[in-house]
Amino acid sequence: MTADAHIMTGLSRIGMLLRAEGWRQAEATGLTPTQMQILAHLVARGPARVGAIATEIAVTHPTASDAVAALVRKGYVEKLRDPDDARAVQLHPTDAGQRLASEVAVWPDALLGAVDVLDDRERAAFLKGLTKMIGALQTRGAIPVQRMCVSCAHFRPHVHSDAATPHHCAFVDAAFGDASLRLDCGDHVEADASARLESWTRFLKEPAHM
Ligand code: SF4
């Protein structure tokens, strides 16, 4: 088996755990994994239109619409007029939806425990590897643009000579290292396509002094 195949096998093992946890939560809450994902997304990021949600969680529009209809029927989500467009509606979590989302653990304990066994150096290397893989999926259009450093207008990869903190975030105006790369940042501002490509290319290319 090649190293690539080992990595795929490892990822599928972790995926298996996340899927099992999704179905366990579904049993406990009466929501399907897609419904739970939509509710969690609305609670974490605020009101959104169904099309935006479908893009964010990478499902088709009809799948998202069906899941939203079920959430509305169950009283966890309500549709309110979009303040920016009187003809459109936004989805909002209801109080019951907020409560349910806060009761459900975001990550399985087993996975949190497994991450705990990594030391700081391993965490930084793992996070950098994940960032590269997710960035590559994003660049190939396999997943939507994520709120991660490599797609952010504030990201300046490999601009500092200190190998421990080579990157810079222009939003907080601070240097940071691989261990602080963000995969879902609330301050993310999507860079335009050419800036994303430039940043991505620079991120992949380790400067000689690093
Ligand atoms: S704002 Fe967030 S995503 Fe953007 S560079 Fe800074 S830490 Fe990364």
Summarize this structure briefly:
The protein is mainly alpha-helical.
Keywords:
mainly alpha, 2 domains, 8 helices
Question: What this model shows, in words?
Answer:
It is a single chain. The chain has helices at 3-29, 33-45, 50-56, 61-73, 95-103, 109-116, 120-139, 193-204; strands at residues 77-82, 85-93, 155-156, 167-169, 174-176. The protein is mostly helical and 210 residues long. The chain has 2 domains: 3-103, Orthogonal Bundle (Arc Repressor Mutant, subunit A); 118-204, no CATH class. The strands form 2 sheets. A 3-stranded antiparallel beta sheet has the order 3-4-5, with no helix packed on it. The protein has a two-stranded antiparallel ribbon with strand order 1-2. A hairpin with a 2-residue loop joins strand 1 and strand 2 (85-93). Helix 2 (33-45) packs across helix 4 (61-73). The longest helix has 27 residues, at 3-29. The protein is globular, with a radius of gyration of 19 Å. Iron/sulfur cluster (SF4) is lined by residues 149, 152, 154-155, 169, 171, 182, 185, 187-188.
